[in-house]
Specification:
By secondary structure, the protein is an alpha+beta fold. Helices cover 24% and strands 23% of the residues. Strands 1, 2, 3, 4, 5, 6, 7, 8 and 9 form a 9-stranded mixed sheet that branches. A hairpin with a 3-residue loop joins strand 7 and strand 8. The protein is globular. One of its GO terms (molecular function) is NADH pyrophosphatase activity.
């Protein structure tokens, strides 16, 4: 069995403070070590999201039936906007009022989440001279509804390039299996 990674150390593990004395040593959340700045307050800014979507430094993490795309057994594959443009188009080209007015619940739209900016990347997106980093998005490419053909075509193209989808753990299988 492979060795599990150590939990991250808290930022101020040795800091002596009233909080530490009263409640004990700080606990580091295992998932708190993300290199991405989530810039949550920009998630409603369509100008920012549209620029982030199309920037050359942008990376997309694709999932098919919740299984991430891999380039090797234990290495995620990231794609560019050009790779996924045929499926997603430019969903941020319209403002929220236009989107609400045109909304049709019977039309499937790609499910995409802005994950954040990786501020360690040079030559990345710069927005309002203050927010800098390579944008990351997660995109669900599970074939369904009106997106089925486009998603299947994209999946086929990716698999022909040698990429594959991670296989889930035993808990992902139906109880009958």
């Amino acid at each position: 069995m492979t060795k599990q990674p150590d939990l991250p150390e808290p930022a101020h593990a040795d800091l002596d403070s009233m909080l530490n004395r009263k409640f004990g040593k700080e606990v580091a959340n295992y998932f708190s070590g993300s290199p991405l700045n989530r810039v949550g307050f920009l998630r409603t800014d369509n100008v920012f999201l549209s620029a982030a979507l199309k920037h050359p430094s942008t990376s997309f993490l694709l999932c098919n039936d919740l299984q991430p795309l891999l380039k090797k057994k234990a290495s995620l594959a990231y794609l560019s906007y050009k790779d996924v443009e045929s499926l997603i188009g430019d969903p941020y080209s319209k403002n929220e009022d236009e989107l609400v007015a045109e909304f049709n619940s019977t039309t499937a739209i790609p499910q995409m989440i802005f994950l954040g900016l990786d501020e360690r990347v040079k030559d990345a997106l710069v927005y309002k001279d203050h927010y800098k980093g390579a944008p990351f998005f997660a995109l669900d490419v599970t074939p369904k509804g009106s997106l089925k053909e486009a998603a299947e075509k994209l999946i086929s193209t990716l698999e022909s390039r040698g990429l594959s989808w991670a296989h889930g753990r035993a808990m992902d299988y139906p109880a009958s299996e």
